[in-house]
Amino acid sequence: MMKIFISTLYFLCCTLVVFAQPDFNTERIRERYPYADAFFLTNKAAINISIKDDKLEIGTDYTSDLLFLNDKANLYKRRSIYYYEENEAISNLKAQSYVPQSNGRLRKIEVEETFVDKPRKRGVFYDDLKQIYFDYPSLKQGAVASYSYHEQYKDPHFIAPFFLAAYSPSSKMEYSVTFPKNVSLKYLLKGDTAGIEFSKKEMKNSITYTWQANNRPAYDDEDEEDNWRLHAPHVILYVDKYTVNDKTIPVLSDVKQLYTWYYAHISQLVTANSDAIQLLADSLTRGITDEKQKIKSIYYWVQDHTKYIAFEYGLGGFIPRDAELVYARRYGDCKDKSSLLYALFKSAGIPAYFTWIGTRSIPYSYHELPTPVVDNHMIISLRYHDQWCFLDGTASGLAFGYPSSFIQCKEALIAINADSFVIAKVPVIEKEKNFKTDSLDITFDGTTIKGTGHSSYGGFFNYMISNAFSDVSEKDKQEGMAQSFEFGNNKCKIDSITWKGVNDYSDTAIFNYNVTIPVYTKQIDNKMYVNMHLKKSLQGELIETSKTKKEKQYDYKYILRQITVLTIPSGYNLFKVPENSEYKSGFFGYNIVYHTAGNKVWMEKTISFDTLVKETNQFDDWNKMINKLNDAYSQVVVLQQN
User: Fold this and answer.
1) How many angstroms separate the Cα of 178 from the Cα of each of 50, 61, 88, 239, 555?
2) CB-based contacts of 570, cutoff 8 Å, min separation 6
3) Which of 218, 532, 539, 634 could form a disulfide with 603 if both were Cys (CB 3.0 to 4.6 A apart)?
4) For 321, which DSSP code?
5) Residue 17: what pLDDT?
6) Nearest 5°: CA angle at 291, between 285 and 293?
């Protein structure tokens, strides 16, 4: 599912306005921000809400001026305004460069030509995204790029959030909304709001809210894709209700109102019946008496026989297509796959429910923000053994009982019927279900290690490898699988590998292989040094605390186990075994144990990670663990020749 609003981040970097002769001191700004390429002199968005013909009209005027501080200015000459044609209209675009002259003044040069096209959008088969783009003339150090334009919303349910932050530092960022007193407006202010100033101005027939952020440094996202919505200060407006002719018209008053609007998009699908879908459901469940097996048969068929293709076209980004159409096409987006799943379960007599949900990149709850901004995905929910189960038709290869990793701990809005819904939280899969266990029996011949391996991948680890090899030929799968199991050093070779439980929705995948690792052991005089840690998970994964100021997100909890058994060849005896090592801290830790018996040495290692978010106050403990683990990885078994 898509978000029907223009990417605000583009506004922050690209939305600029016309002014008269600017008044600023480039050298002073450059001294204050020596590493910045550009500086926002102003960046504003002003929303105006009115009522015309008993309907809401919502428009935004964007204005901004971007000063270039070095000789990279011309790299930024291309500017684009992105919008969804079905839901927004762009007008009154004005753009110009202000170029410094020898007399210290700025020469205004108008942008003479603009273009409109349909840009490519990664991962989306079809949408109605458009862009207006143009090139600023004569940009150089000290120049200012400006433009302004008006955006009109065609649906009052969609108002773009505004971020009071940008990749470049800024002098003044401002967001305002003016609305009549017979409109009830709500807003949510999220992110790091320190320094954000709010004011309210009441006039005879209208009210204006204004948020300002002055003298802001560049927002540092640390290459974490979630950080903008998690941390950058932003305002999300939405209309509660409005009154005309003594009649109150709700828009997004609360979760119930959002649900009512959503349910209108699926109401026909809930009541629809199809002979073709009934025949398919009958064929998928024929001879099966166990309800769980019926669920699996339908769920896995939809995953395996319909291809995920994203559509983002107007309300088509919210409304599922008819199940019979999806069945005939054998492709669709998350809503379409949910439509087919729902219809098949209904035909099989299994109660199932359309469900809206936001991925973990969206940090809002339905109760704090009852708007379409809160979710971006659709799945199917059903009850099994008095527990909610969440089925994602787009998660090809994911076994029943596991939600998609990116919706763990998120709120799900479950459609029970036209008048009732449930908000349930998706569980987080416990670490014990997401595991990798590697057992290796090794010996050596000279400096070459030879051995056999047995590995088990459970939960999301199995899903990941199954997904990676889902569309790979058997020949390429054999080669790719072998490469994925190489370890020890870059000379490692997997001589043969077999597996089961991959691509068949098993909870656990099993791998057996033979391995050769040349030039692995080291001999000095009459002693042989063998590092039992052939797989050094997390090695060197320190967090640079001087640069990383925000928490880190992870896909799932997990446990890693490695058991290495060294058979000491004849002619050698055991001289030294490393000491055991352990670290425990809150949500993560490890344990390494060595023991011996006869001519064998065992090394057993367990790494445990029990959180989806590593908070900043855990960084020091994490680094202590990694440093101790790195030291443990350097310890070796020492053998001595007889």
Assistant:
1) 9, 12, 19, 12, 41
2) none
3) 532
4) P
5) 39
6) 60
Q: What is the DSSP string of 6-54?
A: --HHHHHHH-----SS----HHHHHHHSTT-SEEEEEEEEEEEEEEETT
Q: Where does 267-317 show beta strands of DSSP type E?
A: 307-308, 310-312
| 318 vs 139: CA distance, rounded Å | 41
pLDDT at res. 311: 63
Quick one: pLDDT at residue 316?
A: 54
| Three-class secondary structure of residue 279 per DSSP | helix
d(CA 128, CA 317): 10
Residue 451, classed as helix, strand or coil, is strand
pLDDT of residue 2: 36
498-501: long-range contacts at Cβ-Cβ below 8 A with a sequence spacing of 24 or more? 501/462
CA distances from 265 to 115, 156, 199, 379 (A): 35, 16, 38, 15
Amino acid identity of 188?
Answer: L
Query: Rounded to an integer, what distance in angstroms lies between the CA atom of residue 531 and that of residue 589?
Result: 21
**Residues 131/171, Cβ–Cβ less than 8 Å:** no
- How far apart are alpha carbons 407 and 185 in whole angstroms? 30
103-160: pLDDT as tens digits: 888 999 999 999 998 766 554 455 667 889 999 999 999 999 999 999 999 899 999 8
Q: State the Cα–Cα distance between residues 549 and 545, nearest whole angstrom.
A: 7
> Could you give the CA distance from residue 148 to residue 169 in angstroms, rounded to a whole number?
20
Q: How far apart are CA 358 and CA 338, in angstroms?
A: 15
| Residues 268, 324 contacting (CB under 8 angstroms) | no
pTM equals: 0.89
The residue count of the chain comes to 642
Q: 3-class DSSP state for residue 144?
A: strand
What residues in the chain have per-residue pLDDT under 50? 1-20, 123-124, 223-225, 314
Q: ∠ CA 300-303-304 to the nearest 5 degrees?
A: 85
Rg of the chain over all Cα atoms, to the nearest angstrom: 30
pLDDT at 18 (0 to 100)? 40
- End-to-end C-alpha distance for the chain, whole angstroms: 69
Name 50's Cβ contacts closer than 8 Å, sequence gap at least 6. Answer: 56, 57, 179, 180
Edge-to-edge strand list for the sheet holding 377-384? 387-391, 377-384, 353-357, 411-417, 420-425
Strand-pair category, 310-312 with 124-127: parallel
What letter represents residue 504's amino acid? D
What is the Cα–Cα distance from 115 to 640, expressed in whole angstroms?
76
Residues 503-513: tens digit of each pLDDT = 899 989 999 99
